[in-house]
Design brief:
The chain is of the alpha+beta class and 367 residues long. The chain has twelve helices and 14 strands. The protein folds into three domains: 99 residues, 2-Layer Sandwich (Phosphorylase Kinase, domain 1); 195 residues, Transferase(Phosphotransferase) domain 1 (Transferase(Phosphotransferase), domain 1, Orthogonal Bundle); 26 residues. The strands form five sheets. A five-stranded antiparallel β-sheet has the order 3-4-5-7-6, covered by helices on one side. The protein has a three-stranded antiparallel β-sheet with strand order 8-10-11. The radius of gyration is 24 Å and the shape is elongated. The protein starts with a strand and ends with a helix.
């Protein structure tokens, strides 16, 4: 890695650490194009952007009378077959994951030029990275609309999408703020399943044709995504990334913020990122319970993380419901205080009822 500094980590691009050129029995990846389809049904509106190996356009679907986003490969003739196959595979994987918080794919095909394409729901929200940046800049409207309680609700939805993908045999492997979209009405989508890999019954990735051996985003990548000596990527890698995402929610920074990439690698492998309470700006309250959740999810050793995304999600729900989290290993005293806080109204009513009853008894006895 070059000794450059990560200054805008929330928008940091996905990096490929290692290609795997001979991961097919034939020694090369054979591209199987999707069916060629007429493009008469789509009319171009404007370009949305470019990322990775695809361009995204806003087009109008005449058949369904709606605007959709179309992903295609403008330079497909210069691309190796492995890139073409990965592009099509991303579309098919995303299409197979039908969940309210995963962007839906509508159509997959090849246009008359020979470029593969797929269309998906046009998202009118904003990237999670932009939302975090606005909170960091203390934009008054954003701060008012997105308190920590609402951010945690969004995080739970992200967890539900990833949990669903794991249950259906895939892990994402590139979860980060830039790959999440937040809509104006609370709709939340996990995007960009280009690095997704199939997993076995133990939650580890399976060797697949055309797969990239190692890739991700520094700061959100688990140790085992950097080196196989740290373990095998899979479900636990996504749990690490979710922990890093929660870190960002609490601190409004990436774990890799303003660090040289070599230091990011070292911190990832050793688990020595600054704790959220240390990384957050002065005056920012970082709940100890949530910090414990982050540290457990981002443990450098996979076995020390949560056993599943569901376990992580349930700890967040425990916190928002006024219970102690598993991660914090709360004392009996803290659990009692939380019980009092949760039941303060009923305890007050019971106390007042007891006091009133005692008063009536004493008045009766002194008649």
């Amino acid at each position: 890695m070059a000794d450059t500094t990560v200054t805008s980590s929330l928008a940091e691009p996905t990096v490929v650490l290692s290609e795997q050129p001979q991961n097919c029995e034939s020694g090369r990846c054979v591209y199987t194009p999707p069916p060629q389809k007429s493009q008469d049904r789509y009319s171009f509106i404007r370009s949305i952007g470019f990322g990775g190996m695809k361009s995204v356009l806003l087009v109008h679907d005449e058949d369904t009378n709606r605007d959709v986003a179309m992903a295609l490969m403008p330079d497909f003739r210069q691309r190796p077959e492995s890139d073409l196959q990965r592009f099509v595979r991303e579309a098919k994987v995303t299409a197979s994951l039908e969940h309210p918080y995963i962007v839906p794919v509508h159509d997959i095909g090849t246009d008359k030029s020979g470029s593969p394409y797929f269309t998906m729901k046009y998202l009118r929200g904003l990237p999670f990275s932009t939302l975090i940046s606005r909170l960091h800049q203390k934009d008054p409207q954003t701060v008012a609309e997105y308190p920590l309680s609402r951010m945690l609700r969004l995080f739970v939805r992200i967890c539900q999408a990833v949990e669903f993908a794991h249950a259906h045999g895939y892990c994402h492997l590139d979860l980060k703020p830039g790959n999440i979209n937040v809509g104006e009405y609370g709709d939340t989508y996990v995007l960009d399943w280009g690095l997704a890999r199939s997993i076995d019954s133990s939650g580890h990735v399976i060797s697949e044709p055309c797969a990239i051996a190692a890739a991700g985003t520094p700061g959100y990548m688990a140790p085992e995504q950097f080196t196989d000596t740290a373990g095998t990527p899979g479900v636990k890698s996504d749990i690490y990334s979710l922990g890093a995402l929660l870190y960002t929610i609490l601190t409004l920074k990436s774990p890799a913020e303003n660090l040289p990439k070599e230091q990011v690698l070292q911190n990832t492998l050793a688990g020595t990122f600054a704790k959220p309470c240390e990384a957050a700006e002065e005056g920012t309250d970082v709940p100890e319970s949530l910090e414990a959740v982050v540290m457990k999810a981002m443990a450098p050793i996979p076995e020390e993380r949560y056993v599943s995304v569901r376990a992580l999600r349930m700890d967040i729900l425990a916190y928002t419901s006024g219970f102690a989290t598993v991660a914090e290993k709360a004392s009996v005293g803290k659990r009692f205080l939380l019980f009092v806080y949760r039941n303060a109204l009923w305890l007050l009513v019971a106390f007042l009822g007891f006091a009133l009853s005692l008063t009536l008894v004493l008045l009766w006895m002194n008649r």
